[in-house]
Design goal:
heterodimer, A: about 500 residues, mainly alpha, two-stranded antiparallel sheet, B: mainly alpha, about 5% strand
Chain lengths: ~500, ~700
Amino acid sequence: MSEFIQNHILTLITFIPLIGGFFILFLPKDKHDVIRWSSLVITVVPFLLALILFAGFDRSVYGFTHSNGIQFIEEYTWIRAYNIHYFMGIDGISMPMIFLTALICPLCVLASWGINRGVKGYFFLFLLLETGMMGVFTALDFFLFFVFWEVMLLPMYFLIGIWGGPRKEYAAIKFFLYTLVGSVMMLLVMIYFYLTSDPHTFDMTKLAEINSVFDYRTILWFALFINFAIKIPVFPFHTWLPDAHVEAPTAISVILAGVLLKMGAYGILRINYAVLPDVSYNMSMFMAIFGMINIIYGALTAMAQKDLKKLVAYSSISHMGFVLLGIASFTNEGINGAILQMFNHGVITAMLFLLVGVIYDRAHHREIDGFGGIASVVPNYAFVSFLAFFGALGLPGLNSFISEVLVFIGAFKKYRVITAISASGIIITASYCLWTLQRIFLGKLNEKYKLLPDMNIRETISLLPLALLVVILGVYPHPVLNLMKSTVKYVNNIFLNMNL
Amino acid sequence: MRTFIEHYGFLIVLFPVLGAFINGIFGRQIQNKYGEKPIGYVASLTVFFSFIISVIAFSVIARDPQPSALICHVYNWLNVNFVRADVSFLFDPLSAVMILIVTGVGFLIHIYSIGYMKGDPGYYRFFAYLNLFIFSMLILVLAENMLLMFIGWEGVGLCSYLLIGFWYSKKENAIAGNKAFIVNRVGDFGFLLGILTLFWSLYNQIAANDRLAEFSNGTLSLLSFPFLAENIHLLKGVNLFGIPEYTGISVITAICLFLFLGATGKSAQIPLHVWLPDAMAGPTPVSALIHAATMVTAGIYMIGRLHFLFSMSSVALGIIAAVGALTALFAATIGCAQNDIKRVLAYSTISQLGYMFLGMGVAAYSAGIFHLMTHAFFKACLFLGAGSVLIALHHENDIRWMGGLKRYMPRTFLTFLIATLTISGIPPFSGFFSKDEILWKAWSSDHGHPILWFMGFVAAGMTAFYMTRLLLMTFFGENRRDQRPRDAGGGHGDQHSGSHDIRESPASMTVPLVILAFFAIIAGFIGIPEALGGSNRFSHFLGPVFGSHVEVQHHDPLEYILMAASVFIALFGIVSGVLFYSIKPGLPAKIVSRIKITYDVVYNKYYVDEIYDFVFVSGTKVIIIILAAFDQYVIDGIVNLTGFLLRCKSRISGSFDLRFVDGAVNFIADTTLSTGAGMRKIQTGKIQAYIMFLFFGMVVFVLYKIIF
């Protein structure tokens, strides 16, 4: 049995949610609690598997080939005629993301407890979504990657479109179209890669190996980049994000910001950097500038928001700018910082959206100015919110400080002015975070919320692991950093050895 | 004992954070169940333990004849390529002095707070924050590298924010907290840029010298202070980023100025001084501990810690000295015109911090640290005295409605008097020695200038004047409480008339006052200059850190002249204060009416707050409104417009499709996906359906593969 798990762990981690989803389809429709509890159990399984992965992950591997660097490989020929493989494997870039996904999903099930309408469908789609996400992070065959990429899109569309807020259709379609435009571009690039490679292959490691045979490299790079830029999202492709977030139910916002956005940066590292390294290197300045714009623009627009959820959404745009800036730095420090920032942002933004959900469930609105002074009524909620917002503003000692500093150090080597401007974002971020906290928690108590109940046990449990991570990874980041270091070294050495 | 500190020195830091943890997590339950007592005891005791170990550490350092760096390594915090930072604590004479001040004064203020905060519903919160502050401050002071120092640096900022806004149900307090944190962030931005510039310029030099191999085993840290001290000479003569266009600016100057921006934020110097007066919204023990004795001196400490860096740039030193002298003078003028007892003390703090920067700026590092220490005693004493007054007067903080308190509060009065004489620079109180050493160095040092001395000299006179004014209006004369206009704001609203209920504060508050006053008197004796026949032991103690520059042995007669001048100006300030506010009480009003405009400008703090408010706060508000509108109407507008156009087009081409193209469309060949027709098909879910089939096919396939 344990050998079976060892050999198929990535398949299990990816498909257990889906199988569980089918199981849920057979449950009676009106037994809501049964469905909830089963979903929780089902999502805990991948988390336990992720812990096994975490323990068994070889942190010293270096490379991006079947024999070297990629671990837990599973490969079968899938469609022989087109040389499509079912090829899964992970390295230091995907491992933190898998862990993050596996961690966030059970917490999201907890946050979905309040869903009362179409419970069965909701959890089925949710589990399908988890399969899609896990698949994206484990697939190393481009075709397979694309399949998972699309699989993820569909449940997302329905989850927003059916269980969302008042403007859910608009938001869902917008999300769908945006992502679709990107997917189409990726599809075309994928077909081009396939047709140009000889023998035809979708295997990413092989594509990376033979990357010099591809022509039209800059166009290909941009086609891929735009797809991933939409996901990150990079200015000016970001407007789907606030709408999607505002309309989506809490748990889906958490998934969106916590995991989905990371796929953009992951894709750039996995495909753009691996298959088109020279163009990526030449485009570094371009990416750095957009990273800077994201940081500053996202922070400033966040400050202008009146809706708490929208504010958090814009803050995500700002924080993902750090990721872009970091990977654009082409330094060990910067790329490590970027991946760590992906993880840290996943944790913090998940907290923030969960917290928004908590208050929304009670007050039924999210107007920042509609609260005031509630810290005295809900001290536990206030405590966790302060922790999350201070994490978001990069307080030294909390986790995102480390990733931000690494990004700044990495980026500063090449881009002094861009980094300096980006670093001024720490002032703006502090301003909007504190201003938000002040308007919600401090000041005179709004009499309307005199009897606001504090967080219940379910909400506390959903926030506690994240809160602990924010603190622990702030003082001891090695568990996550060690996963990625050696792979990042490999990626970075490709560029160092290119002699550009 | 040395090995004890090497192995267990981290306990100094650990105890307060334990206290913060206990009170922060369980404090509310403890307070509800067992009352306030255990909370105050736990908090004070943890700081006391830290103090004990600090004393041990200090004695180890003091007894060590050849002090080498004593480092307590705890664990590796960060290790990515060349970025390495450890959680390690550095014990040397400088940090030893600082931890004594932090834990010693901190402990006294904890004791004081037990009485001061009595009955506050947020009692546990207060002590948790206070412990957390001590923890952060100790991290800042003991940090072995710049990144760890940054943790402490922002940690104290966080605690300051939390404590300024401690009584958060008043909106102004919360806003004052925000202001403090955000203004400090501006400084942190500079600090961060300083770290970045330092890191890469040093890296480049090390790479140029082929020494990168030293880092391969991963134990060296570029940003650790011992490493910096040893290798900073590599940066000598390096231009900013090696760009020839910038030949005027050396990279050292740039680093120093960036770091100094950080220092102006934390230590409330021009132009980032604006947050400190507002920070007085916090409870008074906080003002004493954080906003007078310890946190605000972090900037001075940082310069002292990196003195080897600052010493290499006379441009940066000149700017620091100028900013310090200017701030000392500028804040002193404002101090003369304020009526809020705590605000007077706040401006006085800014002014005194200016002195310290003046000292650092003329490379008289030990003089700056000496004044830091004496200031910690007398300013903490003044603030705690003010707190005692506030408690007695039910939070009446306007000195115009005080008066005559010396009759009711003899202990508070006496300690306040001593501290006032100390800050005014009257010998033999400690303030005289420390301030005078700075003034002397401001004139005589290689980096000094008579103008710098003169600015400090004038500020010294003003200090004596406004402190005398404060003392007289608070403790002397008749009580003016019933003259207070009823509708004026401030206070806690409970307008008792008469003075019958004014009482001396309890022992838990007056004992710390007495102890602090005692140190305010005697602390100067460890730094009596050679010119007065002393041996300046303080400077010698810090010698190993700052380099024991042997003093000129012959005593310049000028030193005595300047010393006499300082005493004279201090006396002059006191006498004119007495004249204005005791002998001829009508005089100030007369003078004010003569110089109405000047007075208004000074009274309104030179309108700096208003200018900043207009430029930065309103400016940002306008920008964010514009950007948000841009986001909503332009960018999203384009998106929606594109969507609309595509819908129109797809309708047209859709009908075209229906008529001319046969319904069956090959999916892969249909690469006209970007056209509306393609869009519409995707919208109808054809590709999705296809992908879904593919996907479920794959699921079956995978199951098959795994099972068979």
